[in-house]
Amino acid sequence: MAFPQAKEGGRRTCRVVGAAALGLCLTVSAASALAEGAATVVSPPHPPASATGAAPLEGVDLSLSPECRVPGSKLYTLARLAAVKHALKEKRPVRVLSVGSSSSGLGASASYPVRLENALERSLPNVDVQIDSRGLSGEVASGAGDRLRTIVADVEPDLVVWQVGTNDALARVDADAFADALKDTVEWIKSHHIDVVLIDPLFTQSVADDESYNGLVHKVQDVAVAQGVPLVRRYEAMRFLSASADKGTETHMLGRHFRLNDLGLRCMAEHVTRAITLSLLQPDLAAAPTTEPQPKKAEPEKPAGQ
Fold first, then answer.
1. The model scores a pTM over 0.85
2. Is there a domain that residue 237 lies in?
3. Greatest extent of the chain over all pairs of C-alpha atoms, in Å
4. Which CATH number do you get for residue 155?
5. Region annotation Disordered: residue ranges (predicted)?
6. What is the mean pLDDT of residues 239-258?
7. H-type alpha helices, 165-255
8. Euclidean distance between the first and final Cα of the chain, in Å?
9. What is the span of the domain harbouring residue 172?
10. Which alpha helices (H) appear in 36-81, and where do they start and end?
């Protein structure tokens, strides 16, 4: 859908048509400002006011397609993306390496890597985003870590988007060994001044009460927080969408489980793009002022006998 635009003072601005356009308008405007070196933090649209006495409502992110809308707290955690921001300020193409099972794609326009590239270029106007997809079906984190070291040297990306944990969880990989492998690889990528976005495991109702599976989901979240990298909370997003679907009547000819997987894959490109865009709008860390420690004043001597 195209949104009317107008020029004000020589700068392109959005004219919002309806509430659903608000999130996208804010994203586009702020991303344009970022490219000009004036980054600001943009929050998702405010939720509707709740009834008097009722618990406050958390609004879904209206910049997403209607079928993909999830509250921000269930969709992402944000962190700075210094390497991507540097590429934007240099006005050069942003190179993105996509890894994980769904990144293998089929080369068709409906595949996740193509959707991700298109979504990123819509959210970052006048920026050439180049997706290099190197997904491998069934790959676990330890194997991906070894392979990534070779791929990174070949691709030289600004950003690695890594779907991780689903295959490890299904293979019952030890949670601590998984976390160590993930942490080591993320640290290695960051040491080469490359940004990382993690995507945690997918959700189906069959794993909702699986402690081992959920344990690996939490491990991905723990590593993302400890390493200071953005996280796309695919598990929580899909669980939210699954619960929303329970309230409706829409079905899929191959069954509800198939529809949820298909919806999760189609929405993931939007969810990843939203997390990247808002992370880019995080302010740069200001250097903390340094102050010289002041010498302690000598206490006056007390008179004898006191």
1. no
2. yes
3. 96
4. 3.40.50.1110
5. 286-306
6. 58
7. 166-170, 175-191, 211-227, 234-246
8. 85
9. 23-280
10. none
